[in-house]
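Sequence in, structure out. First:
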Amino acid sequence: MTFKMEPTGHLRGGRRLTLRPRQPADAEALFATMADPQAMQWWSRAPFDSVEELRGYFSGDEGSDWRSWTIVHSGGDRAIGFVSAGRKRDGVSEIGYLLARDAYGHGYAREAVALLIDHLFVQGSRRVFADTDPDNVRSIALLTALGFTFEGRLRAEWQTHIGVRDSLIYGLLSEEWPARSQGVWPTR
């Protein structure tokens, strides 16, 4: 897969999806998922109570080491999820992602996260990692399918709305990624 970053900040190159800079207005499309206790179970915060609260959360990239992109169908503009990347130190980025519940089961998360990984490695990251709850089976499956390696368990790492939780760390090095980014997409 090759991607193109446009002056607008859009990342194009996925077969079906485009990543564009996340906007507060995306809150309307994603609120149903981000207010759902089941969909937000593994997040480090409780579900959102209002669209206005979520809009405020989506305004938070300014002055941060994190950047977020909304996942949209190519040629469309309605948010079906988002991906985020935070710079932890030179050459090391952490990623996060969320997909709207009605978009589950189509491989969109895999395609969008792969597009983000391509972007991060082209921008100079040598390592990309994600932390996930040990019981978040969908996230673990996604990271594994994309070639991430389980690197360790941080015990009692997060105090969340569901209690104190461990965190699993999955990492991917730039030299481990090229074969996957050359159009070799994992299939469902």
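Second:
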Amino acid sequence: MDQWNRGRRWLFGVLLVALSNSMIAHSEVVGIFFDQTLPQSSFAASEIQEALADRNCTVELRSLSSLSEVYPHPKIILARVGDDAVKKALLAQGGQIPDGLGEQAYALRTTTNEMLCYWALGGDANGLMYGGLQLAENIRFNGLAGTYHSQEEPYINRGVKYNLPLDLRLPTYHGSKFKTDAHLHDAWRCSGGSGEER
């Protein structure tokens, strides 16, 4: 019995050490280079920082103007495609400059020449933000293991579609008439109508 207790204590000790070593795992340092004067760029950088923190990475936020400096860790660059310094750095890393990026469009690039670099390039400030948000989502799913070479042009004519039954003649879904009737009063009241069926 005494031997059994010693074995259990030994096993518990080994598991405790293994668990504590996995919790103190070495975190990778990643630098995010972005224009801190642009709110869209700062927002995208904060989302990427959060995604990297979820992956146990240490994040260094750096100014886009310091991109030309030697940086010994993986980099994430958020910039507008028209920035000449960014174009020069991308070409030096062996990347391709996206062409034809319009309003709210973005391109993602990955280069690995000297160090792993992810590039989110926007046609404008909003495109830069959308590219950064897509990169944050990619990091949440793939960590720093993914390779990206894509270009996205959003559908600009955005709007809100309210799927409300406003009239008995135009039900928005099929099925029980009760569902439509249950919401009809509220829909007319919100839009300034009388709330009564005609």
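Remark: The beta strands are 29-34, 58-63, 75-80, 106-111, 117-122, 149-152.
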